[in-house]
């Protein structure tokens, strides 16, 4: 129910005019949102743990964008779950949007590039049962769950145009990280470069520069698409225990 601001007050009583919405309508707990976000964080954490158990090189494992983006999902969704459960204001859209973009990049690149033999950058290989479960959790479950949380449990209109280029700072910094790491490792080292499109030995610096521009533009286009969709998508409202009262913040 929309809040109302009284035009008159009793003598001596504090006026509600100009008071922040959260002071008039207290934030409510969002148990459904809290439970769902906790499950998303658990899925990301489980995938990381399973991959860690099956890995003999944790340094190499945590050099992957997949693992790093899922770490961000685990942290941000656990944080958001806590705030929803304790009726605290939602996380800023800049943070939730960054997590959504990064995990979307993870899912899309995996399914359309790394798992696609016709892409020229495929990384198909035999996997152990643990790796197969972790693979699905990290590349499919968490991206889809993050998108569902955004579409159903998050009020629209929080993403701003400037967020699109701000979110790109991390993907852009990942490029020199991967190249410097590869340069420090001996030639022929397994997993020297985390992804085929960043492999200097295969493509040379000119080829890597072209790949970086193509992927960078694609990621920026994806970020702009998220901002646009966030502005035009409907505000889905559910039961009172799913959606917080007005004034509790942009993330419902």
UniProtKB/TrEMBL annotation:
The keyword Transmembrane helix is annotated on this UniProt entry: yes
Segments traversing the membrane: 32-50, 62-82, 94-114, 134-155, 167-188, 208-229
Keywords per UniProt: Membrane, Transmembrane, Transmembrane helix
Name this protein carries in UniProt: Pr6Pr family membrane protein
InterPro entries: Pr6Pr-like
Source lineage: Bacteria, Bacillati, Actinomycetota, Actinomycetes, Kitasatosporales
């Amino acid at each position: 129910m929309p809040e109302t601001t009284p035009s008159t007050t009793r003598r001596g009583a504090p006026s509600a005019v100009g008071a922040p919405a959260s002071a008039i309508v207290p934030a409510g707990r969002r148990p459904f949102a809290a439970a769902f976000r906790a499950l998303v964080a658990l899925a990301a954490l489980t995938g990381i743990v399973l991959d860690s158990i099956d890995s003999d090189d944790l340094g190499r494992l945590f050099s992957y964008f997949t693992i790093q983006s899922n770490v961000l999902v685990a942290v941000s969704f656990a944080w958001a779950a806590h705030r929803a459960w304790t009726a605290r204001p939602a996380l800023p859209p800049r943070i939730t949007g960054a997590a959504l973009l990064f995990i979307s990049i993870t899912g899309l690149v995996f399914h359309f590039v790394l798992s696609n033999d016709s892409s020229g950058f495929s990384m198909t290989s035999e996997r152990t049962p643990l790796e197969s479960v972790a693979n699905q959790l990290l590349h499919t479950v968490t991206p889809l769950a993050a998108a569902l949380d955004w579409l159903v449990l998050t009020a629209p209109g929080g993403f701003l145009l400037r967020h699109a280029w701000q979110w790109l700072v991390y993907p852009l910094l990942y490029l020199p990280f991967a190249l410097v790491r590869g340069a420090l490792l001996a030639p022929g080292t397994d997993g020297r470069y985390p992804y085929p499109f960043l492999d200097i030995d295969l493509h040379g610096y000119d080829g890597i520069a072209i790949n970086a521009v193509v992927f960078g533009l694609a990621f920026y286009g994806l970020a702009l698409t998220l901002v646009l969709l966030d502005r035009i998508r409907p505000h889905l409202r559910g039961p009172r225990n799913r959606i917080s009262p007005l004034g509790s913040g942009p993330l419902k």
